[in-house]
Every structure is written in C-alpha cells, then in structure tokens.
TrEMBL record:
It catalyses: GTP + 4 H2O = 2,5-diamino-6-hydroxy-4-(5-phosphoribosylamino)-pyrimidine + formate + 2 phosphate + 3 H(+). The keyword Translocase does not apply. Belongs to the GTP cyclohydrolase II family. It comes from Aureibaculum flavum. Pfam families: GTP_cyclohydro2. Pathway: Cofactor biosynthesis; riboflavin biosynthesis; 5-amino-6-(D-ribitylamino)uracil from GTP: step 1/4. This is GTP cyclohydrolase-2. The lineage of its organism: Bacteria, Pseudomonadati, Bacteroidota, Flavobacteriia, Flavobacteriales. Residues 13-175 form the GTP cyclohydrolase II domain.
Amino acid sequence: MMVNNSTIIQGERVKLPTKYGHFELIPFQEKISGVEHIVLIKGDFEPKDTVLTRIHSACATGDLFGSLKCDCGEQLVESMKLIEKEGKGVIIYLQQEGRGIGLMNKIKAYKLQEQGMDTIEANVHLGFAPDEREYQVGVEILNALEIQNIQLLTNNPDKINKLEQSGIKVVQRVPIIIKSNQFNKDYLSTKENLMGHQLSDNDT
Ligand SMILES: Nc1nc2c(ncn2[C@@H]2O[C@H](COP(=O)(O)OP(=O)(O)OP(=O)(O)O)[C@@H](O)[C@H]2O)c(=O)[nH]1
Ligand SMILES: [Zn+2]
C-alpha cells in the first residue's frame, strides 16, 4: 500500500537488461536526506505472494571493484542469478555503506584491520556499534512494492529479526554462501563466530 506519510519517493520503473538476467529498476529517494536506494525487480507480485528478496547493503569496494576482502560483490551477483532463475524476485540495494558507517569510516576501519584488529574491534575503536544498520527504509520500500512475505537471501539472523520487528514476514531464509579466499577468510570467520552469521553448510 502506498501510504501518504511515507518518507520515501518512488521513481520510474524501467527495463534493465544485465549480464546476469533481465530485470527492471526502480530508484527510491528518502524525502528528508535525499539518499537514494535502488530496487532491481523481476516479475509482478500479488500482495499475498512470497517474494524471493535480497536486501543488500552497499559495499563500494566489493560491489564495484570486486574486492576479495569481503563476500558482498559475489553475493550480489549470486542474488541476481538466483532471481533470474526463479523468474521473480527483488533486490533492494540500500545505501548504507560499511554497515552504516559510510565509506570514510569503513576505510578507517580497514586501516585498523591492516594493523591487526578484526572487523568488530575496528568499528568499536572508531566509536560505532559493530553494525549500525537499520532496515526501516528497506521495509518502506517493501511496503511501497506491496510485498509482505519474503524468502530472504541472507546468512545474517539480525537482518531477519529487524525485518520481522517491522512487520515483514520472513517465510524462509535462503542461505547465500560464497566460497572464502585468503583475503576474506578472517572477515568471514569473525562474522560467523562473533556476529552470528550462518556460514556453514549445516547451519539452518
Ligand atoms: N564497517 C565495516 N563494514 C564492512 C566491512 N566489510 C564489509 N562491510 C560492509 O558490510 C555490509 C555487508 O552487507 P550485506 O552483505 O548486505 O550484509 P551482511 O551483514 O553481510 O549479511 P548477508 O545478508 O548474509 O550478506 C556492507 O555495507 C559493506 O560495506 C568492514 O570490515 N567494516
Ligand atoms: Zn563488502
């Protein structure tokens, strides 16, 4: 439902053929801050449908440049491929770089990680919570698209909890596990051991 007190503006819906499949793109903008988010969507939905969904936080290093220090870029491509295969689904690309601390601070955190801290210690050293993200805008975007029930592509239980608290029904979690490499194995094991991410095949 498009509610009048919405804090976001929905843009035009255009076709976007890509290397990984044929999608449509809809930009959204937060009314107060002007921050822009991107939706990639495939297919049409009824409000009762359960929609394969990826809520992805921006990672300039991983998504744009193919950084091997994290799993973001590969998760994004894998989500696009899975939605193409399914024939229906949505990716909400939220501009919350660096788990919500912005690029400048994420790179400060990377510097601290070069000096031996892990990804949590670096955030905390800079005065932030390990994860500063909120999913309220993502929920508003789902509301605008009239999506209420989702199959969420994630390994992160915190995302599921925050979405469910905002009234979205996560009917199923779909794991999206990327093979580790020498540059991201410490980052991924910190996510698994200290941030509760479900990265092993036998996790559910
Ligand atoms: N502060 C900080 N942010 C990072 C670091 N590495 C990656 N990120 C950010 O972490 C976020 C990862 O986003 P997602 O892939 O959507 O979320 P996730 O928590 O990994 O959960 P999944 O749904 O399982 O992928 C992005 O905003 C990245 O920019 C890091 O070392 N420090
Ligand atoms: Zn990343």
